[in-house]
Amino acid sequence: MTPKRLHIAIQKSGRLAERSLDLIGSAGYRLTKSASDLAYSAENAPIDLWCLRDDDIPTFVADGVADLGIVGRNVLAERAAGGGNGLHEVMALGFGRCRLAIATPAGFDYRGPQSLRGLRIATTYPNLLKRFLAESGVDASIVIMRGAVEVAPRLKLADAICDLVSTGATLEANGLVAQTTVLQSEAVLVRATRSVDPELERVADSLLSRFRGVVASQGAKYVMMNAPSSALARITEILPGAGAPTVMTLAGREDLVAVHAVCQESVFWETLEALKEAGASAILVLPIEKMM
Can you give the residue range of the structural domain that contains 203? Predict the structure, then answer.
């Protein structure tokens, strides 16, 4: 009998495609691409990847064709707002961050959602926009588009848009300004509300554990220093995003200790200067490759 394999649906192209492959590679899975470029197989685990259109990923997972999927939270939320179910978010993956926002032409006197009353708004997220307008008590027309939403005001198809915003460069190039945020988004791992095949549950649990380790190590730093015992309280306050540090006595020194800490937030030069001012010395900041 052919061993069962865990199937993961990812984008075949677009902003999340390459980062999804990077995440899986960072989790220790060695991938081999199929001849069609639409699938990958892991050499060292019973895992297959299927490369799909992002809008199709939730359907594949909900219907049981794929066991897990990587999509933008915006795609998952649009499906849920339209009455779709059968999926839940397992974890955020720390990349592909953007926001779904209302944008208006530069010079438009925008004073909150009420400014949209009676206007036409173009979007590829009609369910989320409809919910946002209802919650804001605004009566406006929704123009559904499948791409190039940012050109709608210039072509007089709409008065405003509701679209994903990352850097804002595309909006600026089209004379638009981002206004109210409708949804904060990033890449998320999703699975069906039903259970995975028991034979594959262990594989899924291992994958999730590895993903959490990769995400936890993103941007994290391992900080080491020597410091006076009397300065420990102040140094703990300064260390960004760190829990209780590890403190070890130094041989032959009762007044000094070695302090080790994992910092989940960025460690800037200003942080090091503050640590030094508090009495720390021999400060080392190291990247973290893996963390579980």
Answer: 6-95+187-217
Q: Which pLDDT tens digit goes with each residue over 211-270?
A: 999 998 887 889 999 999 999 999 999 998 767 899 998 988 888 999 999 987 778 899
**Does 66 score more than 60 pLDDT?**
yes
Q: For residue 89, what are its two tokens?
A: 């978010």
Digit-coded pLDDT (tens) for 149-193: 999 999 999 999 999 999 899 999 999 999 999 999 999 999 988
- Identify whether 292 is part of a domain: no
Say whether both 52 and 197 belong to one domain: yes
Task: Decide: pTM greater than 0.85.
Answer: no
Which two tokens mark 248? 């070890």
Using CA atoms, how far apart are residues 116 and 132, in angstroms rounded to an integer?
11
Residue ranges of E strands in the chain: 6-11, 31-33, 39-42, 47-52, 68-72, 87-92, 98-105, 120-123, 141-144, 160-165, 176-185, 187-192, 221-228, 246-250, 253-263, 281-287
Q: Is residue 14 part of a domain?
A: yes
